[in-house]
């Protein structure tokens, strides 16, 4: 190990501090003025940075919102994972995850339409450091993998594929709720999970050959 090896860690911490500062500044402006009214120029001025610095870290205003959402979700992830591991089976863990998600979504409803539009528009650059993923897909994939190992989930499809399919059901449910086409989100998620676990066949039909 060389004497200069800690430098990348310092740079990483400094970058995170900058991202946090810019995001916290943006959130204060969103709360005070309303999301639609706030411009990138206002955020840069309030944060006391050059516009180029802001755009270098966040290409669009929605990216600041996405960073806030993902940071918040990441902060809750350890407790969420610990609680799910204590549950006895796959269905219970998924139900707990969706219940927790519904509580979180209800408290962030004003921002979710902007966030979801951004995530869909930038889905092809999900690994870009400026547009990180929330990690929810990885949690679902890990739950599916554990369910397969326990013999609770079909194993003829890879966990990543099943998690991808679930993600589309999840987004469709969230979109219906945001558009006012659904009842309480927790009830909509219960129905979504039932379809994911059991399909759309009537209970007395079973699985046809």
What's this, in brief?
With 209 residues, this protein is mostly helical. The chain contains 9 helices and no strands.
Characteristic terms for this protein:
9 helices; 209 residues; Arc Repressor Mutant, subunit A; globular; 2 domains; mainly alpha
Mean pLDDT across the residues is: 87
Order of helices and strands: HHHHHHHHH
Radius of gyration: 20 Å
User: What's the CATH class of the largest domain, please?
Assistant: Mainly Alpha
Helix amount: 55-70%
Give me the CATH fold name of the largest domain: Tetracycline Repressor, domain 2
For the record, give the distance between the C-alpha atoms at the N and C termini, rounded to a whole number: 61 Å
What is the overall number of helices?
A: 9
The CATH architecture of the largest domain would be Orthogonal Bundle
Textual characterization of the structure:
The protein has 209 residues and is mainly α. It has two domains: 1-58, Homeodomain-like (Arc Repressor Mutant, subunit A), CATH 1.10.10.60; 62-209, Tetracycline Repressor, domain 2. It is 68% helix and 0% strand. The protein contains nine helices and no strands. It has helices at 7-33, 40-47, 51-57, 61-85, 90-107, 112-121, 136-149, 159-178, 185-198. The model is unreliable at 1-5 (pLDDT under 50).
